[in-house]
Write a structure and sequence with these properties.
The chain is α+β, with helices and mostly antiparallel strands. It has helices at residues 2-44, 110-119, 167-176, and strands at 84-94, 99-109, 130-133, 139-153, 161-164, 180-182, 185-187, 194-199, 202-208. The radius of gyration is 54 Å and the shape is globular. The relative contact order is 0.13.
Length: 212
């Protein structure tokens, strides 16, 4: 009985000894499997997160243009006559641009008129006591004031400056080179010379000059 117990003990001990390496082997397999799933991934290649967890790419900054350059207004014509009173022949008028083109001349009377006429071979004394000198072909573009006054001769009641003219009708008469009648008013246009008064570089007054 004692021998049988010892054999039983030995058998139990043997079983326990043989079970240890099997258990250790099983645990080792589990450990290798776990370490292979995580450690290999960390060592060999980066882990790619799901698309839903990936950060959205930041848009590349685009160069911004500066503020659009403001279109500069067209410069006014250069001031071609000093302030004061000037005489000449108006060649054209632009009511929209508020400009006119002047052929500058000189209206002389008395002895000045006779001297200028004699120098140029004209008879003296000059008829009607006036002489117009217009030797320079240069044309000048002048700016009209918004408050321009247009004083014209009332040719129906000749010959006083009593007509406050309309600029657009006046421009038409200048362009045609002939008289234009509007209602009771007659515009001689380019038939007459004119006096221009300039203040601050702008024409503020146009007065028609009567010639007999």
């Amino acid at each position: 009985m004692v021998e049988a117990w010892e054999t039983g003990r030995t058998g139990v001990f043997a079983m326990r000894r043989s079970a240890v390496p099997i258990l250790a082997l099983a645990l080792g397999v589990v450990a290798v499997g776990c370490s292979g799933g995580e450690g290999a991934g960390d060592a060999d290649s980066p882990v790619t997160p799901p698309a839903s967890e990936r950060p959205s790419p930041s848009p590349s900054p685009t160069p911004t243009d500066g503020p659009a350059p403001t279109e500069e207004p067209s410069p006014l014509p250069e001031i071609e006559l000093e302030d004061g009173r000037h005489f000449g022949f108006i060649r054209s008028v632009d009511p929209e641009a508020m400009t006119l083109v002047l052929d500058l001349a000189y209206f002389l009377t008395g002895e000045e008129a006779n001297e200028a006429a004699a120098e140029r071979g004209y008879e003296v004394p000059v008829p009607n006591d006036y002489f117009i000198v217009n030797d320079n072909p240069r044309l000048r573009t002048l700016v009209l004031s918004p408050d321009l006054r247009l004083r014209l001769i009332d040719w129906n009641r000749c010959c006083e400056l009593s007509l406050d003219g309309d600029l657009e009708v006046f421009a038409t008469a200048i362009e045609r080179g002939d008289a234009v009648t509007v209602g009771d008013s007659v515009y001689h246009g380019a038939r007459s010379p004119y006096w221009l008064e300039i203040e601050g570089g702008r024409v503020v007054l146009i007065e028609e000059q009567y010639l007999p």
